[in-house]
Fold this protein.
Amino acid sequence: MGEEEKKKESKQAPVQETPDKKTQETEKKEKPFRHARPTRFGRRSREDEDVEFKDHVISIRRVTKVVKGGKNLSFSALVAVGNEKGLVGIGKGKAREVPVAISKAAQDAKKKLIEVPILDTTIPHFIKGIHGGGEVVLRPASKGTGVIAGGAVRIIMELAGIKDILTKSIRSNNPISVAHATIDGLKRLKSPEGVSKIRGKEKESIWQ
């Protein structure tokens, strides 16, 4: 009886291996097709994002780090990114070459985009933005006034899509502090629709 059982097991062994081989071959064939589709769609979406957003360099600074072996030179860049339709952001990048630092800063700015409420061609109300030593005053303006600003504030306003505004930088002239103060002011702006929902009143009775 023992010999007969061994013969049955030896006959059944190759039968069990065949479905495993077939499943492995089918998995190998299916894998490339599963991974190929999302990468194609991902490339198209990135290209569309690059077309929509525009970037502008605010400042480039040379940074020197003293180490044991000598000095390491690198560049830090501050870049603003926006679509001129209410989305804007700023980011920093650091590298040994200027183009690499700018590309890193642009990627960082796209991760920090904020939505700016725009009323016609200007901002809804007066506001101050403060960051560190920088303080920026933003005032709404009538049509045809233009962007009364300079430096980092002007770049951010144009990329945000604001066409009429009055601004004033009061304290620090450092472009990094001024840029962050401008973003702080734009971030705290409130739209008429949002205020009316919070207070439960009509927009005409609140906003004048």
Q: What stands out?
A: DSSP finds six helices and eight strands in the chain. The first helix runs from residue 2 to 52. Strands lie at 54-67, 70-82, 87-95, 114-115, 127-131, 134-140, 147-148, 165-169. Residues 20 and 26 are 10 Å apart (CA to CA).
